[in-house]
Design a protein that fits this description.
The chain has 313 residues and is of the alpha/beta class. The chain has ten helices and 14 strands. The strands form three sheets. The protein has a seven-stranded mixed sheet, sandwiched between helices.
């Protein structure tokens, strides 16, 4: 079995929070490397008196949370979702969490996106949407809508349960002739799916410049530049655009925080599809949506994840 070790730089306060996020994203286990866990050798107590004082000096100043993930077809998505999750965690937490920098110990960063390609094959998401890696061959059927994608280091190969549920809900909800906003677009996969389903205009936003670059490349590869506008920035600050349907495959914390202000970007009667919600947070997200004035229309589950379709009252 091959594994990729991810290392997150944080603090003593942030170690448990970071470990929890890593486990939610499928880590087989975590290990915390923290100077604070080593008793001060200058104050002997039992066996600790045998520790060389240089041990602490040799340890990193940052607290390091190590995690091991299998490099399968969802690895790039999980790595990108981890970055988004840690960014949101740092913004919402009052604790000092450190840099939250992510390192890879066994595979170079630039190789991350290559490791899992052998596992990533064309697959169907819904009745008509088909997700096809740019490097794979696929003979499309008459009614197939093919999304050609190279997610690189951006979240959104479609293999992750959250992405596939969003694609399914997009197809079932329908968006033909509508304006769509994709918040946290990642690879651009949901924006491209909406355009192929007939959306008149799609705005795809992301705060991560890497994601914006990847999304723009994928939009161009699918020849949809005239219908999809890819922008970097926080939707709530970057534009006053409104839509008939908004889709956000991010994390529970962000959905809860922006459910209310997001309404200003959705027309009355418009719909909101959201995912990236671990099942344990489902009730919290449902409460936030209801309190903000959305009517829950559908709840979908895959694995440990939840996706929700709601409408603006």
């Amino acid at each position: 079995m091959e594994w990729i070790e991810l290392i997150v730089h944080t603090t003593t306060q942030g170690a448990d929070l970071v470990s929890d996020r890593l486990m939610q994203l499928g880590a087989s286990g975590t290990m915390v490397e923290d100077r604070a866990d080593v008793p001060d050798p200058s104050k002997p107590n039992g066996y600790w008196e045998l520790i060389d004082p240089k041990l602490i000096e040799s340890m990193p100043e940052d607290v390091l949370v190590h995690a091991w993930l299998e490099p399968d077809a969802t690895f790039a998505e999980r790595a990108a979702l981890l970055r988004e999750s840690l960014t949101a965690l740092k913004a919402s937490s009052q604790a000092e969490l450190g840099s939250l920098k992510i390192d890879s110990a066994q595979v170079r960063d630039e190789d991350w996106a290559e490791v899992w390609k052998q596992f990533y094959k064309p697959f169907r998401a819904g009745q008509r949407l088909v997700v096809k890696p740019t490097w794979e061959q696929y003979e499309a059927g008459k009614d197939d809508l093919v999304i050609e994608i190279d997610p690189g280091m951006a979240f959104g190969s479609g293999m992750h349960e959250t992405t596939s549920m969003c694609l399914e809900l997009l197809e079932e909800a329908g968006c033909e002739g509508e304006r769509v906003i994709d918040v946290g677009t990642g690879s651009g996969i949901l924006a491209i799916g909406a355009a192929l389903l007939g959306a008149e205009k799609v705005l795809a936003t992301d705060i991560d410049p890497t994601a914006v670059k990847v999304a723009a490349e994928n939009v161009a590869h699918n020849h949809l530049e005239k219908r999809i506008d890819v922008r970097q920035g926080d939707l709530l600050e970057a534009t006053d655009a409104v839509c008939d349907l908004c889709v956000a495959n991010i994390i529970a914390d962000v959905i809860c925080a922006f459910a209310a202000p997001l309404k200003e970007h959705i027309v009355p009667g418009g719909r909101f599809i959201c995912s990236g919600i671990i099942r344990e947070r489902e009730d919290e997200v449902l409460s936030a949506l209801t309190a903000a004035g959305y009517e829950i229309e559908q709840i979908r589950h895959k694995g440990e994840w939840t996706a929700i379709l709601s409408g603006r009252r």
